[in-house]
Amino acid sequence: MIACHLRELRPLQQQSNLKASLWMSGWLAAMVTMAVAGRETVSQLSAFQVMEIRAIIGFFMILPLVKLSGGFKAMKPRHPWRHIWRNVVHYGAQYAWLVAVTLIPLAEVISIEFTMPMWVALLAVFTIGEKMNRWKIMAIVLGLVGVWIIVRPDAGQVEAGQLISLAAALGFSVSVILVKNLTGTDGVVRIIFWMLIIQGIIGIIPAIYVWQPVPADLWSWVVLVAFCGTFSHYCMARAMVHADATIVVPMDFLRVPLTAIVGWLVYSEAIDIYTAAGASLILLGNLLNLKKVK
Predict the structure, then answer these.
(1) pTM over cut 0.85
(2) Largest CB tally within 10 Å, which of 30, 34, 118, 247?
(3) What secondary structure does DSSP assign to 63-99, as a single string?
(4) Residue 219 and residue 89: Cα distance in Å, rounded?
């Protein structure tokens, strides 16, 4: 979602796959940590409260970047309503994702989340007029088959967490389409800045309704959620500055096995053959989605 904006910056930056890899390492570390921290916090607090605290802490965390980007005056949005609609959808998707990580194995959540590029490709055809090609069609088919294998509705084993995770992936896809219209006029810091403000405002009432004291031993996890949720996207943005999307995006595929390993080490979550097979098809679909027609 940030690649479009960074195309204008890339010619001014020296291309470096090494630098891109280092920034992607930050992204991967943040996202895998986010999965664990999200489960730990939402297992004791409502996701609404966690998201509200994350928005508040994240706002103060991003202030140094705001200052480096020109201060609050530079944060004035060009299209306020686009920010609002994007963050309403993104807020719902984040809520669903946080709930999903408490219901099913982490590897399943991340595998299903990786269908997002397929949904984006499909939605882009109907919303912003992008053309469909054979590679995108194959990617969508593989993604759907991959989800079918993981969820296995024909075996009567559909779990609520799987459906919620799929809803999160669809919500994130709509968010990407909406933010794609923002990246032409608004920078990454400005988008994150308004994400934290708008989602903080959206979440006030539901957070107050479910609010409870945060246990002292949980604060470290809450801070990790705020940090990882705020700066993971910045790491991805910096990686995109130093290398093309076709180099950067496949690095993100490491998130599936890394999350599976963490789930096994921390929660003793075993990965069954269906999740492994479905994830493989979804990742293959992602690779095909990156292929350009000459």
Answers:
(1) no
(2) 118
(3) HHHHHHTT-GGGG--S-HHHHHHHHHHHHHHHHHHHH
(4) 27
Dist CA 57 CA 52 (whole Å): 9
* Residue partners of 83: CB distance under 8 A and separation at least 6: 77, 182, 186, 191, 194, 195, 198
CA distances from 203 to 101, 214, 250 (A): 20, 17, 34
Compute the distance between CA of residue 273 and CA of residue 278 in angstroms, rounded to an integer: 8
Q: List, in order, residues 6 or more apart from 254 with CB less than 8 Å away.
A: 28
CA distance 145 to 130: 23
Q: Evaluate whether 104 touches 162 at the Cβ level (below 8 Å).
A: yes
pLDDT tens for the chain, 294 residues long, are 334 444 434 444 557 778 888 998 999 999 999 999 999 999 999 999 999 999 999 999 999 999 999 999 999 988 899 999 999 999 999 999 999 999 999 989 998 988 887 787 777 777 767 677 787 788 888 888 888 888 777 666 678 899 999 999 999 888 877 877 777 778 889 989 999 999 999 999 999 999 999 999 999 999 999 999 888 878 887 787 787 766 777 788 888 888 989 999 999 988 888 888 888 888 888 777 766 544
Residue 225 CA to chain centroid, in angstroms?
A: 13
